[in-house]
Write a structure and sequence with these properties.
It is a single chain. This protein has about 220 residues and is mainly alpha-helical. The chain contains eleven helices and four strands, in the order αααβααβααβααβαα. Helices cover about 60% and strands about 5% of the residues.
């Protein structure tokens, strides 16, 4: 890939710094106290137990996130704009770095594809993207790249999200390894069947093995 090795090392260093800064985010310091007397946000014990089993969060964590979620979104769901405002609570990066990637992460969190992220989808997405094993996080990452939700990735789709990842990672010397060149090189690695498109299995299989590419491609480090 020509001069890509040195640039890839720079990208990996930046991604490693970001991953270290993300450790331990369960209840961000930016999460404000919510009025404990607000009855309409109360969840049943059964709902809490179910979400705890699905996400690994404690009952207290679920209740606090639930109250915050409904406090900011009384209708109980996030559209694209609402998600862009709410998602920075989960990350240490600045909103400026997160803005471009948020629309793609929204697609992964919106499991049923109805154009909204409900509380259950939000909490599950948060749990998987922050606490899930590598395969689970890459499964969510694939959904970020699948712009048309057809189950396959093209080079154009890779490039679009890689551009957002460059912003997220704070990569400044973009001309050293432009997103379109990165996407082309990545496509060659991923498309083992030479079909011109990448399946989820191909995507996950390669990135499970290659940490250098994974550090730039995966928004959920």
């Amino acid at each position: 890939m020509g001069n890509t090795k040195s640039m890839s090392n720079k990208i990996q260093s930046t991604a490693n710094d970001r991953r270290q800064s993300q450790q331990g985010i369960t209840e961000p310091s930016k999460l404000p106290e919510v009025d404990e007397s607000e009855k309409r946000w109360k969840m049943s014990e059964r709902d809490i137990a179910f979400l705890s089993a699905q996400t690994g969060f404690t009952s207290d964590e679920i209740i606090r996130w639930h109250k915050k979620f409904f406090h900011d979104n009384p209708d109980g769901r996030l559209n694209h704009d609402g998600f862009r405002k709410f998602y920075p609570l989960l990350r240490n990066e600045t909103p400026e770095r997160l803005n471009d990637i948020c629309d793609h992460i929204f697609r992964a969190f919106d499991v049923d594809g109805n154009g909204y992220v409900e509380f259950g989808e939000f909490l599950l997405g948060f749990a998987i993207s922050s606490r899930g094993d590598l395969r689970s996080r890459l499964n969510y990452a694939f959904e970020c790249y699948d712009l048309d939700s057809n189950g396959y990735l093209t080079e154009d789709e890779l490039e679009a999200v890689i551009r957002a990842m460059y912003t997220l990672l704070g990569i400044k010397h973009v001309d050293d390894y432009p997103p379109e060149k990165f996407a082309k090189d990545l496509m060659k690695k991923l498309d083992t069947s030479h079909s011109g498109r990448v399946t989820k299995d191909e995507f996950i299989y390669f990135l499970m093995k290659d940490g250098l590419y994974r550090n730039t491609v995966n928004p959920f480090q």
